[in-house]
Amino acid sequence: MGKARHAAKLSLALIPKTKLRSHAASPSTQPPSAHPPANPTKPGKNPHGSSKNFTAVAPVAAVHEERKPIRTPADLAAAIRAAADADIDAAAALALSAPPDVPLPTHSLALLLRRLFTTRSVAAARSLLDKLHPSGEDGCPRPNPAPRGALLALADAVCRRGEPREISRVLPVLRDHGVRADAHLYNALMKANVAADDPGAVLRVFRQMRSDGVDPDLVTYNTLIFGLARAGMVAKARAFLDAMAAEGHLPDVVTYTSLMNGMCVKGDALGALKLLEEMQGKGCQPNERTYSTLLMGLCKNKKLDKAVEVYKSMAAAGTKLESPAYASFVRALCRSGSVADAYEVFDYAIQTKSFAEVTAYSELENSLKWLRRMSS
């Protein structure tokens, strides 16, 4: 018996005490897990030994969020707005799959059309319109055309982009839905063609505007005259200036200055000077751009005496020049030997704070150095 009790004590002593404490401390009756959980007191410790912050996330069952049913136009608008930022195709699918008794709000359609254009093209926006508002049979008008507000929103986005091809493609879209393009759209198309140096396209747009029954406005004529004059088509630009006045659109300072610039580029600086007199005679006062354009043109065409006269009248009116015009004028005066006049222009530029003194002084100094080298 003594040996048995001694053997029992010895067997108990061989049991690891740590396991007894760990098992005894567990409130559960289940045996301890073979993979103990991560230490809850150190949530930032990476279990793989990395020093980077790491938060263990327990695996959870996948929960499929149920989409809110679309019962009203407000529900449809909210769903489209939420989906449009992430996936424009999903947003368009919501519009196409909406219940028949839930109309698509105009502002939601406008959002879809703008996003389709900005991310893709006018053709993509037109494709959605054809699905939402199909055309009539046998060439008949659409029984349910798209709302005017959404179409004009698309046209505005296209005009802001300024691509001639895309602007020309949006015109038939408007026409198909019974919306006539306005002067703003045609003006944008003309400006885009002016930027592309295509005066022929500018004229075609103007003629199309007329044939579509849209009256040109002051912006139309200014854009047309600027594009033609810049391309060297001065005579045609002058003809449109006379035509616009006959139609009741009085030429403004932009109109005259654009034509002056074209005349100076063509070498007709004296004709531009006469246009200045005509402009002032009709009560239209020149601005900085007008005087700068004319002075630079006179200097380039070696009409320095006329340039000095224009400068004196400009200074008497208290008008300034643009920085490039000051530089050209000072350089021309110095090269002609009129150093006193050059200093007078220099002083006026400083007094009127037309540009930084360092810039004006550097230009004058360089011109004087050139004059000294030429006279030596």
TrEMBL record:
Which Gene3D superfamilies does the entry link to? Tetratricopeptide repeat domain
Bias type Pro residues, positions = 29-40
Listed A to Z, the keywords are: Repeat, Transit peptide
Where do the PPR repeats lie?
182-216, 217-251, 252-286, 287-321
Recall the GO molecular function terms of this protein's record: mRNA binding
Q: Using the UniProt annotation, give all residue ranges assigned to the region (Disordered).
A: 1-53
**Record carries keyword Oxidoreductase:** no
Q: Which InterPro entries match?
A: PPR_rpt (IPR002885), TPR-like_helical_dom_sf (IPR011990)
One BP term from GO: mRNA processing
Cellular component, GO, one term: cytoplasm
**PROSITE patterns linked:** PPR
Q: Does the keyword Repeat apply?
A: yes
Cite the NCBIfam families for this sequence: PPR
Q: Which family does it belong to?
A: Belongs to the PPR family. P subfamily.
Q: What is this protein called?
A: ATP binding protein
Protein source organism: Zea mays (Maize)
